[in-house]
Amino acid sequence: MSYLLCPLSSGQMHVLYEWRSDERNYDLYTCRPVQALPDESEFIGKLKQDIVQEVRQIFVMVMEQAPSKPLGRITLFDFNPRNHSAEFGYYIPAELRGKGIGRSMMGLLLERVFGQENRLNKIYATTASNNEPSTRLLERNGFTLDGRLREHFWIRGRRYDQLHYSMLRSDWELIMSHKVTR
Questions:
Q1: Residue 51 and residue 57: Cα distance in Å, rounded?
Q2: Are 95 and 70 in contact (CB under 8 A)?
Q3: What is the domain partition of the chain in residue ranges?
Q4: Cα 125 to Cα 114: distance, rounded to the nearest angstrom
Q5: What is the DSSP letter of 68?
Q6: Long-range contacts: 132-140, Cβ < 8 Å, 24+?
Q7: Contact 129, 148 (CB under 8 A)
């Protein structure tokens, strides 16, 4: 199967709204305060505003054969032009988890930010210590655990550490050089 990572289009924004409204465990995936989901037009308006103002870049992964149907979302945000870094987050709908989509999507993002665009030196992500699928995804893609904020997540009455992972351009280049020599 061949995948593409494409900038989010206006026609796909409703899918992101559906994913957010259908996700029953949203509180497990963020350390930010969980707020009520706005109506769809407000949600889409905020997405458009953030994209235009370059607050975040939102990409969706699609199959080459079905480019209008997103399989997952990956977002770059908190751009720091001085340090050439950005944070990223990702989401895969429940019915598509565990099928390698996250790994493919992350590989495409790394190729884009380090291989094609050549403007960032580091990307990083955070996750809760109990989110084992996310930690596995980051580690399998070559991210380094930089540190943890102890008991930073309060999820359903329990406390978890927030894990900070990063990848440098030089890390990615080393990984890619090993893939070429195999």
A1: 6
A2: no
A3: 3-181
A4: 16
A5: T
A6: 133/97, 133/98, 133/102, 135/163, 135/165, 137/90, 137/102, 137/103, 137/106, 138/165, 139/165, 140/103
A7: yes
Q: Which of 52-56, 108-112, 145-149 has the lowest mean pLDDT?
A: 52-56
CA 86/CA 25 separation, integer angstroms: 26
Whether this prediction's pTM lies above 0.70 is answered by: yes
The phi and psi torsions of 40 (rounded to 5 degrees) equal -60, -40
pLDDT level of residue 75 (50, 70, 90 thresholds): very high
The predicted-structure confidence for 81-131, as pLDDT tens digits, reads as follows 999 999 999 999 999 999 999 999 999 999 999 999 888 999 999 999 999
Provide the percentage of residues in the chain whose pLDDT is more than 90. 79
Contact, 28 vs 155, CB < 8 A? Answer: yes
The architecture (CATH level 2) of 3-181 comes to: 3-Layer(aba) Sandwich (3.40)
Confirm if 167 and 144 have CB atoms less than 8 A apart: yes
